[in-house]
Amino acid sequence: MNARLSEATALAGRIDALDWHAIEEALNQEGWAQINGLLDAERCHALAAGYADAAQFRSRIVMARYAFGRGEYQYYAYPLPEPIASLRSLLYPRLAPLANRWNEAMGVAARYPAAHADWLARCHAAGQRRPTPLLLQYGPGDYNCLHQDLYGELVFPLQVAILLSEPGRDFEGGEFVLTEQRPRMQSRPMVVPLGQGDAVVFAVNQRPVQGTRGTYRVQLRHGVSKLRSGQRHTLGMIFHDAT
């Protein structure tokens, strides 16, 4: 077995061993769930170092040009490198059943197939053919404004971010933040305490919340607070492709 297959097999075992019931409970209660140690330090370092390899990417965005914040990111090109391709195909089928239950609860007609390849085929048929996994890079004073990663009409309602740098060693500040907007209420801020290799699964746009008068939709946005020092890299895993 070559190294690439061995890594993919190990990653599949790690994902299978996660407590998916607890992850779903957290997503239902809070709109996000943390997965500790999804990637090891060696893989995190390798992915972060890959930012300098322009051949891996299809485009580069400098956030300040578009008032997105400060810092920059690059979108990976197809074919996606490992372990990004495996992460996308392994995590999606674990999240698709919950995504379907959320849509049913919110009265949204869209349903998601069990396999990620089938979902991508649907995206591509609708003209959404550009890959969306991305690698973000922040330096001192950089931040990411609150936003949603939608990219087209077909949107998978959950996504994953993995912190590749080590807080306190590689950088200071730069917390991953979420805000939740419930009807007729002020926004609720949430800070996710990620360590190196930890992942956060969170709602892209809306999630259902059960109220006294039935189910209503809650809007979520995410971003990154200002870095005080150092450099921070994050892998963003979005399951729909872009127009």
TrEMBL record:
Superkingdom of origin organism: Bacteria
Domain Fe2OG dioxygenase: 129-242
MF (Gene Ontology): metal ion binding; oxidoreductase activity
Keywords recorded for this protein, A-Z: Iron, Metal-binding, Oxidoreductase
Keyword Iron: yes
Family statement drawn from the similarity comment of this UniProt entry: Belongs to the iron/ascorbate-dependent oxidoreductase family.
Name of the protein described by the UniProt record: Fe2OG dioxygenase domain-containing protein
Source organism phylogeny: Bacteria, Pseudomonadati, Pseudomonadota, Betaproteobacteria, Neisseriales
